[in-house]
Amino acid sequence: MIRSTFTIIFFSMLIISCSSHQNTGTLNNQDGKLVDLTHDFSSDTIYWPTADSFVLEEVFHGKTDKGYFYAANNFCAAEHGGTHIDAPIHFAEGKNTVERITLEQLVGDGIMMDLSVKAQTDPDYRITVDDFRKWEMKNGKIPDGVIVLLNTGYGKFWPDRKKYLGTDETGAGAVKKLHFPGLHPDAANWLVTERNINAIGIDTASIDYGQSTLFESHRTLFKADIPAFENITNLQQLPEKDFTIIALPMKIRDGSGAPLRIIALIK
Fold this sequence. Notes:
The protein is α/β, with parallel strands linked by helices. The chain has a single domain (2-46, 79-266), classed as Putative cyclase (Glucose Oxidase, domain 1). It has 7 helices and 13 strands. Helix 6 (185-194) packs parallel to helix 7. It is globular and about 65 Å long.
């Protein structure tokens, strides 16, 4: 029954996605509202200051010598940029690479925590254990096996690198100028030791805040084989709970990360 329900939802999503495109990122079907949580990939896509940008190279676009239209491109992209997944191997030796992450960690019930008010007044804000406890006081204990999404409100700044990252500079020297919210290492440890989540996502460039140099939240989560979704968007369209997440990355063998198409189905 679970597999059948997922199949229906998945193929409904594919059919609607192919037949309709809306800038709001919201699609509707008879089972609920589908929300696209993915930035598209283009020359505007934001990457880490030390990473190469996305490149789409035209191979052919036009009528062939046989008279029919044909279009094809090559693309080049770093694993970690745009809306993407961080596999645990990214910061934890011996842990899962992209293709080894189970579907159960990528598809399932989601919850959303709205920290946008705090994050908008402090670009270096780190989401705390107390923030999670306040969410639980209102919504009940975080259920086992959920996908946690953190809304800092930074999705609205995309693709303005200066507002989104804190700097529009590139190269190694720009890294120390990064300013954006993230997850406090103590909160990451609490999620690992006191709760049982399947994955976590955020609408910034990193699960650790911009000024991090040790990437402790990454290391704690990934040691527990919990993947992270970064640079997601449209989280303001989600309720705090009662929705399903489908997060399917490009299945790169031995990948430390991959481009991600992530959607939510609001029940």
